[in-house]
Amino acid sequence: MFAHTGAKSLRPDGWIFRLLVQGIIRGTQEVLKASENPASIWPTDRSISECEGTGWVAHTKSRNEKALAWEMQQNDIGYFLPMHWKVSRKGRRTFRSLLPLFTGYMFFCGSEDDRVEVLRTHRVANIIVVNDQELLVKNLLPIERLLVEGADLKPHKYIETGRKCRVVAGPLLGTEGIVEQSSKQTRLVLQVEMLGQATSVEIETDYIELID
Length: 212
Prior knowledge:
There is one protein chain. Residues 1-26 have low confidence and may be disordered. By secondary structure, the chain is an alpha+beta fold. The termini are far apart. The protein has helices at residues 15-26, 65-74, 112-120, 133-149; strands at 28-30, 41-42, 54-60, 78-80, 83-90, 93-100, 105-110, 124-129, 154-156, 163-167, 176-181, 186-192, 197-202, 208-210. A 6-stranded antiparallel beta sheet has the order 9-13-12-11-10-14, with helices on one face. The protein has a 5-stranded antiparallel beta sheet with strand order 2-4-7-3-8, covered by helices on one side. The longest helix has 17 residues, at 133-149.
């Protein structure tokens, strides 16, 4: 990466030298500081179940989810952008990035004027009409609760068929999903049906019961 920078830039007082030393000392670096990432939900003191107006799904242009979230905040448009931490390694350094859970999609609500304002950002490919508003909120609420709890959510493939289960204890009490078990762990898969997208979280087997 630094093959053509020249010896001068690597002297002890050079900026590249300092960056290299910082990377080695810190070990793990965040691509963006927590404060530089938008909130997952806006307004931050309101649940998506309290969303005012009509709900839509914004299908964003590539890597525009966070930028769109910042613009929605500036225009006071309520949104939900679930995100997860991804760890990657490059050489001796480890990076942590906060990425959208459903790449290219975020949810927002408001008036027709708000919808037009989102289109004016030029950060969306199109806006998807939500025919069943209640179902979408029902799909998203468990994800919101897990994020509030600080759960380690991960993207997951959408499952057409599987072993359905119901959560019988914990913050997701009453939530239904699909259970996937391996020799190492049990995961609860939560799906957003209208998008064909899913996420999963590790769960104790004592917290779920299978549904016939």
